[in-house]
Specification:
By secondary structure, the protein is an alpha/beta fold. Helix content is about 45%, strand content about 15%. The protein has a 6-stranded mixed β-sheet, with helices on both faces. It has a 5-stranded parallel β-sheet with strand order 8-11-14-7-15. Strands 9-10 form a two-stranded antiparallel ribbon. Helix 8 packs across helix 9, helix 16 crosses helix 18 and helix 19 (about 485-505) crosses helix 20 (about 510-515). The protein is elongated, with a radius of gyration of 29 Å.
Length: about 525
């Protein structure tokens, strides 16, 4: 926005601190005896160069906002009343307790508390706008932090009686946090000392690669607190197993672990499944039933495939994730279907998805505020193809489980072993269906193989019968020429596949993805992404 311009086409709420410059400007306009009395009482120096309007009034002189909420750490009703009259625009002034205006932690807690009471009450279409100029640099920094994460909004600054909308050209959750996690992952990996199986609660995790050590390290660190955790990863990577491991490694281990698969329950029933219902709430509700939240009281609720929740239920669940005033973060208040009386439960929430929730937010299919509530901590599970020699270790372990199961069902059953050729096949295959696909292939091979040894042909034959979704591109296969074959399209497919793979391995950081691909810079990669029409994944 150009200096001094106005834009009344957007409904906006302006939120700002009242800074010392604002107070000095207001006192300058008061009778001297009033100004001196208040300045002495508050310890404010009103000398020096004259101040005309101050940042807040400058902003309000240039832009029309639907609502204005101003925070002040001066508990002085007379001051607030004078400022409200002087500014010339209807404003709400909230007096807050802030002992040190340079203490980032204290400012964060105060402002977040205020925003948690403000944002849920905003009418549809009203966007928060933050004025960065008033107050200390620490206050401005907290506006940026919260305005780019938990409470997204616009930013404004004032200068010499003019106001400008300030573009902050980065996303903390997408551009900054992944870099921090990348640097921290090497420190977290040591938490799975020896091997992940030796980490309390994670004994079912197989493998010893750096990728799985890092995932276990993050999950184990997250387990000790009752914060929400979002587990991401492709289908078949073991998200439910990790959720159960987090519960087992937590102080809630003796309490219930309740699982709700959001993709497996019809939309019209999932609200009742989560919140419960009263008798007669709907056709077929012949008795009252506790929902998953009530059943998980004291323990953990795991919502698998959270990306499948429809928008209406997302809004209802968002309210559940906001604890009642004065309660701890794990206290949930909810309304069973057909009831007019809310209930409470102490529940830790874990969620998992194989979908790109950030992309769904951009598309409007998933609520951004719900994503932030769920992803207080994220744990990304690596695909099997990213775990190196773990695939063979996992195959041996799974084969032992299959043998034990067959032995119980069939006395005299002779255990099968995986041949060297089969292990080489397992190690080199990409396994788009991950561990689940590997298990199914081994199970079919064990049933169909004639001898006691499973060969690479046995596993290959099992794969041919195993549905795994879209067939991955085989860059070495000899595609038939002619009949519509297009070399340019085939090469584009190869480029797109490698770029997507690099972006996934680099956790979306384009500079790192460019390095993996041998490109000169992230700008070169961005140009390739645009040329190939790759969606922002």
């Amino acid at each position: 926005m150009a200096p001094g311009s106005t834009d009344q086409s957007r409904q906006q709420l302006l939120i700002s601190w009242i800074g010392n410059t604002d107070i000095r400007a207001m006192l300058t306009a008061q009778p001297s005896h009033v100004a001196e009395k208040i300045a002495d009482r508050l310890g404010i120096n009103i000398g020096g160069a004259p101040v005309i309007d101050g940042p807040v009034k400058t902003a309000l002189n240039n832009i029309v906002f639907d609502n204005v909420i101003l925070l002040t750490n001066y508990a002085d009703p007379e001051l607030s009343s004078l400022y409200r009259d002087w500014v010339g625009t209807p404003v709400e002034i909230r007096e807050v307790v802030l002992r040190d205006p340079t203490d980032y932690g204290e400012i964060f807690r105060v402002v977040r508390t205020q925003m948690e009471s403000i944002v849920p009450e905003l009418p549809a279409g009203v966007t928060p706008a933050y004025l960065l100029s008033p107050g200390t640099p620490a206050m401005a920094a907290i506006w940026v932090l919260l305005g780019k994460t938990l409470f997204p909004g616009r930013f404004y600054q004032t200068w010499q009686s003019q106001v400008t909308e300030t573009e902050i050209p980065f996303d903390i959750s997408l551009d900054v946090v992944p870099e921090l996690f990348k640097a921290a992952d090497s420190r977290l990996s040591h938490l799975a000392a020896g091997s992940p199986q030796e980490t309390p609660g994670f004994d079912r995790v197989i493998g010893d690669s750096a990728a799985i050590r890092t995932a276990v390290g993050r999950a184990h660190r997250a387990a000790i607190r009752s914060v929400s955790v979002l587990i991401t990863g492709e289908s078949g990577t073991g998200k439910e197993m990790f959720a159960h491991a987090i519960h087992t490694a937590s102080p809630r281990r003796e309490a219930p672990f309740v699982v709700v698969n959001c993709a497996a329950i019809p939309t019209h029933l999932i609200e009742s499944e989560i919140f419960g219902h009263k008798k007669g709430a709907f056709t077929g509700a012949v008795t009252a039933r506790d929902g998953a939240l009530k059943r998980a009281d004291g323990g953990t609720l795991f919502l698998d495939e959270i990306g499948e929740l429809d928008r209406d239920l997302q809004a209802k669940f968002l309210r559940v994730l906001e604890p009642p005033v004065g309660e701890t973060s794990s206290v949930r208040e909810f309304l069973p279907v057909g009831s007019d009386k809310s209930e409470r439960a102490d529940v830790r929430v874990l969620a998992a998805t194989n979908r790109n929730l950030n992309a769904m937010v951009t598309e409007g299919a998933f609520r951004e505020d719900l994503l932030y509530r769920l992803a207080v901590i994220t744990v990304k599970l690596p695909a099997l193809r990213e775990r190196g020699t773990d695939a063979v270790i996992i195959a041996d372990t799974l084969m032992q489980r299959i043998n034990d199961e067959f032995q119980r069902e069939e006395p005299g059953y002779r255990h099968k072993i995986i041949s060297v050729s089969a292990k080489n096949f397992v190690s080199s295959h990409r396994w788009p269906g991950n561990v689940r696909q590997l298990y199914n292939a081994l199970l079919q091979a064990a049933v169909m193989a004639d001898g006691d040894t499973i060969t690479d042909q046995d596993i290959s034959a099992a794969l041919a019968e195993t549905p795994v979704g879209e067939k991955p591109i085989d860059f070495e296969e000899e595609l038939p020429l002619g009949n519509g074959f297009d070399l340019d399209n085939h090469l584009r497919s190869i480029q797109k596949a490698y770029i997507r793979r690099a972006l996934a391995q680099a956790h979306g950081i384009k500079a790192e993805a460019a390095r993996l691909l041998g490109l000169k810079s992230h700008q070169t990669l961005s140009a390739q992404i645009e040329r190939l029409g790759i969606s922002d994944e």
